[in-house]
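Board notes (copied after class):
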Amino acid sequence: MIIGKEEPRDIAAREALLDEAFGAARFTKTSERLREGRLPAEGLAFAAREGGRLVGTLRLWHVTAGPSRPALMLGPLAVAADRRSAGVGGALMRQAIADAADLGHGAILLVGDAPYYARFGFSAAHTGGLWLPGPFARERFLGLELAPGALGGARGLVSPTGLPAALPDLGQLVAAAHEGGREYARAA
């Protein structure tokens, strides 16, 4: 298995992997509100590959842990069904944490299974004064300090701060759809 940076060629496979792991419900999660319309943090979108096949994905996103306190939000982490329990998720986690620390980030937040993420140092003790923009289970809202004190006294709403993702030009989409319809009509 090779852990590397996510590449544009991974998009379709990543989306299929996320659909397999979480289904359509992934779009209703509170954490998704912090990701939608944003780009992942530069250099912090990862892909696990085996023989050219995408078997795992993990991304980190820029947020604030309350006013004026930069942090990263981790998620989603997904692993192909036939590779779960093979160490793919752990390898992605270790790489993401190490790279975030190397890039000088101070903290990572996530919503997830506390026993799983505790082995990487995540704890609900760091998130007691924070809340998310929607429903969440308090015991699943976890934090990890990459720099000592990065989440000390953090209070307030976790908000997205990452760069906005480019949106397709609506005029071009309409024109393309219109052209496609015209070509369909000519073929019929």
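Comment from the instructor: The helical segments are 11-22, 30-35, 88-102, 114-118, 170-187. The beta strands are 2-5, 45-50, 53-65, 70-74, 78-79, 107-111, 130-131, 141-145, 156-160.
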